[in-house]
Design brief:
The complex is a heterodimer of chains A (308) and B (267). By secondary structure, chain A is of the alpha/beta class. Chain A has eleven helices and twelve strands. Chain A is globular, with a radius of gyration of 23 Å. Chain B is an all-alpha fold and 267 residues long. In chain B, helix 2 packs antiparallel against helix 3, helix 6 packs across helix 7 and helix 7 packs antiparallel against helix 8. Classes of the chains: A alpha/beta (308), B mainly alpha (267). At the A-B interface, strand 5 and helix 4 of A face helix 1 and helix 5 of B.
């Protein structure tokens, strides 16, 4: 179980003025700036749950993941993951946790993946039987068996991601942090990774936190989402509920003889608005549908919990 | 223990993964350094009209530089930036996630490179005899070579701790390249890599005695050349152990403070 209470993280950095004058001045004095990456966050996630963490760039998603994975220390507040304080980085915790970063390789580039796996086997002290079973299971499910003897740097992006997934899951972690796992992958590789994670979650029931900018990842994998904006949570609940909560609207996609446009109207005004549209325009095509989840979430990220 | 053995084996695999790099480092760089130093000293000897300078003949001076050229590689281990580079690009995160001690892991990988370069020593001696002095096969004894290599590895451990101390400053500073270059210059210059310490004034040697530098290069090189008696070697090794303990304590303290500052930039 993950429990987070009043968790805060403030980063400090220095800035210098642009230009030569600024650079010279910066040699002696620089301005220190403080940025609240997380502003008193509360969160609870049960074993077996998979939660999608959504937010714009710089909203605080990765900072939260970094804290829960034990990479950075919080400024204040508490967090426990299965009873461990992550930033204390006890080996007992780290043996049960995995962090997979789509943008940063963790396996050793110069070597075939199997060499990295053997090292990880020793680091995580995985017994021979479990290791063999896991290699067989993961390689087959991810369809990467034939590439495991090739140096990682020679693999394609999709193959590398699969190798990263294998490396991170070899020790069968009970907590998984997936940070942009499908970034840069082509559509079929994205689908393969999603499918794999879905099956893995069903079979082994870890706690999983997924951050992704691809709504397909979220829709496919996360029944629960947390939307984070400027370091604070603006929504924590089911994916379907966010649509229901804010989406008591209908979207009319209209094509007239002059233009194509979309208009969002309250459900109660649907018939009146449709009638008006037909009266005022020469409507060639009309499509009535629910607002797309992407639009709802984008709206929340932009405006908070205002109706779409 | 098995874990650490495995890490050493893995680092060797990484080294051998790049064949051209291996041969360029081994032959190209070492031979080039040697040829330049030899040509320089040959001129000095000729211009002075002497066959011996501060206890060195041209033959022993060539040998000194030959050992030093490999010795500096033993000392420099995984090379400049082995921690700071990873802090800046975010790869460093890996060591915080895996259930292992980051400091031990980095020290072991560093010393693996030192071990690898120390293996060059014996091959280099063959070159020395083949290229320059085929009649002096007995100049280096196996016992001195073994002892000197051991002292070199101890020196590499001390230097690894010094380098780690500077590298960890990357947890605060945006660039530590100049600090690393400075440390390297100090260690190599005052260690006797550029000019043997025998050419330094007495007062400078008296001051240097209280620093770790003379024990990093001068001590192991002279041990291999048979110019140190066992007592001097033991004393030097003891001093190196003291510096290892000192710098390791400083590294642990810095790491304890520095990890609070780590922001995981780059991921």
């Amino acid at each position: 179980m993950i429990q987070v209470r009043a968790l805060k993280k403030t980063f400090t950095s220095t800035v210098k003025e642009p230009g030569l004058k600024g650079s010279l001045h910066g040699l002696f004095r620089r301005k220190t700036i403080f940025k609240d990456a997380l502003k008193s966050i509360d969160l609870e996630i049960k074993q077996g749950e998979i939660v999608g963490l959504i937010g714009a760039n710089g909203a605080g998603k990765t900072t939260l993941v970094k804290i829960l994975a034990g990479i950075v220390h919080p400024t204040s507040g508490t967090a426990t993951v299965m009873g461990f304080k992550p930033w204390e980085r006890s080996n007992d915790y780290r043996r049960q946790m995995a962090l997979i970063m789509g943008q940063k390789a963790q396996v050793w580039w110069d070597l075939p993946a199997l060499d990295s796996f053997l090292l990880l086997k020793e680091i995580y002290q995985i017994d021979d039987r479990l290791y063999q079973d896991n290699i067989a299971f993961l390689a087959e499910t991810l369809m990467i068996k034939d590439q495991l003897k090739t140096p990682v740097r020679k693999l394609s992006l999709g193959e590398r991601m699969k190798v990263e997934l294998m490396a991170a899951l070899l020790h069968r972690p009970r907590v998984i942090f997936l940070d942009e796992p499908t970034i840069g992958l082509d559509i079929s590789a994205q689908r393969a990774v999603r499918e794999f994670m879905k099956n893995y979650q069903r079979e082994f029931k870890p706690i999983t936190i997924l951050t992704s900018h691809y709504m397909e990842d979220i829709k496919e994998l996360c029944p629960r989402i947390v939307i984070i904006k400027e370091g604070a949570f603006v929504y924590d609940g089911s994916l379907s509920n966010v649509q229901r909560m804010l989406g008591d609207n209908k979207v009319l996609s209209v094509t007239t003889d002059e233009k194509t446009f979309k208009v969002t109207v309250p459900r109660s005004e649907l018939s009146q608005q449709t009638h008006d549209l037909f009266t005022k325009n020469n409507v060639l095509d009309l499509n009535i549908h629910d607002p797309a989840i992407e639009d709802i979430i984008e709206s929340i990220m932009r405006n908070g919990l205002a109706p779409v | 223990m098995k874990k650490w053995r495995f890490i050493v084996a893995m680092e060797f695999r990484k080294i051998f993964a790049y064949r051209s790099d291996f041969w360029v480092t081994f032959l190209g760089q070492t031979l080039l350094q040697l040829l330049v130093a030899r040509a320089l000293w040959q001129n000095i000897f000729e211009s002075q009209g002497q066959t011996e300078l501060n206890g060195f003949t041209l033959s022993t001076m060539t040998l000194y530089y030959l050992i030093t050229s490999v010795g500096t590689k033993i000392l420099a281990g995984e090379n400049v930036g082995f921690i700071s580079r990873e802090i800046y690009d975010g790869t460093f995160t890996r060591y915080l996630i895996y259930p292992l001690s980051f400091l031990e892991y980095k020290t072991i990988t560093y010393l693996t490179y030192s071990l690898f370069y120390s293996m060059h020593l014996s091959l280099i001696f063959l070159l020395y005899h083949l290229l320059f002095y085929p009649d002096q096969l007995t100049l280096i004894t196996l016992a001195n070579l073994t002892l000197g290599t051991g002292v070199f590895l101890l020196a590499a451990f001390a230097y690894a701790m010094m380098a780690t101390l500077v590298e960890l400053m990357a947890l605060w500073a945006e660039n530590i390249w100049s600090l690393m270059v400075m440390l390297r210059f100090l260690a190599f210059f005052f260690g006797g890599s550029f000019i043997p310490l025998d050419f330094f004034p007495a007062w400078a040697l008296e001051i240097l005695k209280y620093t770790p530098f003379p024990y990093l290069i001068n001590l192991p090189v002279k041990t291999i050349m048979g110019q140190m008696d066992p007592i001097q070697v033991l004393q030097g090794a003891g001093i190196l152990l003291f510096w290892i303990g000192f710098f390791r304590a400083a590294v642990l303290l810095l790491w304890k403070k520095g990890q609070l500052n780590y922001s995981g930039a780059g991921i």
